């Protein structure tokens, strides 16, 4: 590999300063990468746990709903689900985790009247409806906060994975390209300077011998 660099003491000094900074940056990036991976693994575990919990509850809710459809007429079922019982506003912010802007999703408080309505998830009377429908609605009404948390976790995992890959590429570039290249240049310049130094010493010794032969 051809090394293109001026073999001077000034260039050697600049390279030595640059390699110190590069090694320090490599250590910081490596530490960041390790911490990112640790947090990513924690988030993936939490995401897996919550997803399994949500899927289980959804399966139960859909099972109750299927049973309700067999016990109720389509008209009564549609009328029971026609009107909403309340509203919920969602606020999406960002939080910084190791320089990664992860979404932070939360529900925004509503008015007092709406809060009173939201205590009950049912918008229908119980006289003409099935208990299976009640069970399905009850389960579904409690899933929304978990779904929001799951969406937050899954988006956070994707963003963390992207940042880990970027950091990994930077670490590898420093470890396998920049630092070895600068080390080779420092070695090359040091060797050239040593050769020049030995050449100067040899010339001085020859000059001294010539002067001694002439009796100077």
Descriptive notes:
There is one protein chain. This protein is mainly α and 216 residues long. It has a domain at 22-165: Helix Hairpins (Orthogonal Bundle), CATH 1.10.287. The chain has five helices and two strands, in the order ααββααα. It has helices spanning 9-71, 74-80, 112-117, 131-141, 144-213, and strands spanning 89-97, 100-108. A two-stranded antiparallel sheet has the order 1-2. Strand 1 and strand 2 (100-108) form a beta hairpin. Helix 1 (9-71) runs antiparallel to helix 5. The longest helix has 70 residues, at 144-213. It is rod-shaped and about 130 Å long. The mean pLDDT is 83.
* Strand segment count: 2
- Fraction of helical residues: over 70%
Number of helices: 5
Low-pLDDT segments, ≥5 res: none
Strand content: 5-15%
Mean pLDDT: 83
Q: How far is it from the N-terminal to the C-terminal residue, by CA?
A: 48 Å
Gyration radius (Cα, Å) is 36 Å
Structural class: mainly alpha
How would you write the strand order of the largest sheet?
1-2
Task: Kindly provide the name of the CATH class of one domain.
Answer: Mainly Alpha
Q: What is the CATH architecture descriptor of one domain?
A: Orthogonal Bundle
Q: Please trace the helix and strand order, writing H or E for each element.
A: HHEEHHH
Give me the CATH fold name of one domain: Helix Hairpins
């Amino acid at each position: 590999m051809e090394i293109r660099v001026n073999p001077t003491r000034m260039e050697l000094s600049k390279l030595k300063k640059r390699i110190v900074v590069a090694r320090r940056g490599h250590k910081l990036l490596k530490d960041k990468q390790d911490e990112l991976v640790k947090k990513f693994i924690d988030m993936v575990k939490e995401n897996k746990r919550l997803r399994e919990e949500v899927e289980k509850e959804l399966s139960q809710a859909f099972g109750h709903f299927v049973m309700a459809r067999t016990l109720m007429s389509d008209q009564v079922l549609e009328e029971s689900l026609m009107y909403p019982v309340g509203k919920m506003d969602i606020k999406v912010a960002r939080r910084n985790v190791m320089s990664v802007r992860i979404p932070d999703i939360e529900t925004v408080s509503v008015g007092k009247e709406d809060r009173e309505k939201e205590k009950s998830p049912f918008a229908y009377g119980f006289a003409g409806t099935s208990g299976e429908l009640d069970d399905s609605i009850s389960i579904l009404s409690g899933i929304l906060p978990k779904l929001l948390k799951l969406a937050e976790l899954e988006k956070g995992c994707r963003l963390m994975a992207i940042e880990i890959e970027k950091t990994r590429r930077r670490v590898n570039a420093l470890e396998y390209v920049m630092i070895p290249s600068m080390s080779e240049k420092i070695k090359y310049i040091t060797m050239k300077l040593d050769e020049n130094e030995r050449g100067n010493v040899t010339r001085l010794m020859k000059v001294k011998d010539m002067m001694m032969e002439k009796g100077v």
